[in-house]
Amino acid sequence: MVYFLKFGASWVLPPGIFIVALFALAVWLWRKKRQKQAALMLGALTFAFYLLCTGFVAEKTMGWLESAYEPPANPQGDVIIMLGGGAMNDSPDVDGTGALCASPANRLLTAVRLQRRLDVPILLSGGQVYEDTGAEARIARRILLSLGVPDDKILVETKSINTTQNARYSAEILREHGYTRPILVTSAFHMKRSVLNFEKQGIAVVPYPADYLVSHHPVFHYTKLRPQTEALLDNVTVLQETLRTFVTRYIE
Prior knowledge:
By secondary structure, the chain is an alpha/beta fold. It folds into two domains: 1-53; 79-210, HUPs (Rossmann fold, 3-Layer(aba) Sandwich). The chain is 52% helix and 14% strand. It is built from nine helices and seven strands, in the order ααααβββαβαβαβαβα. The protein has helices at 2-9, 16-31, 35-52, 55-66, 102-118, 136-146, 163-177, 188-200, 229-250, and strands spanning 79-83, 87-93, 96-100, 122-125, 154-157, 182-187, 206-210. Strands 5-4-1-6-7 form a five-stranded parallel sheet, with helices on both faces. α6 links the parallel β4 and β5. α2 (16-31) packs antiparallel against α3 (35-52) and α4 runs parallel beside α9 (229-250). The longest helix has 22 residues, at 229-250.
């Protein structure tokens, strides 16, 4: 009964209500003897939008993107690079003000655990993207210190505002300090493009994906066919990463 209620409620809330509205418009066009427009509305727009809003499709597309690299069982390196992914400078936190968003917080958790296992420095890469966002690397540094990572094991890069600059400015720091075997930590969906950006800087990294968004072995349930904003966001993320990877590889 719980699953049935969830399935039903998804059609009266966004994005489900928009799919219902588009379907109703297609029916109205059909009744007005405008079959071509109705077919286009129903087939090319409504159905495509519906598919993008389902967890079933999101698991397939996001799973494909996240499977580009697997975390190595025995990672070896002389430095860990953690890429930023969003921060808020005025959010209250345990030991101060400023907090990381969900994705970089998950990345940080992985980076800390790797640092404790390997006893190598962490290079935090990420600047302040907008006026009302936080300086990512500085906020992450404060959190690392509160988690017990020694100050001399933390490097900070604060100039970058996108992945291309993450790689460029991190490469400069790596060369300055003589690091040659960096382990790259970022979200699994972001790893493919990140590795490519570092390759273009002449840096071969060991990919260590984190912050997985979908299961490696998903099990079908009919509720995965209901429209969800989370599924739409995942599919949009896949489309964005695919486009940005293409631009990075062939245009930049």
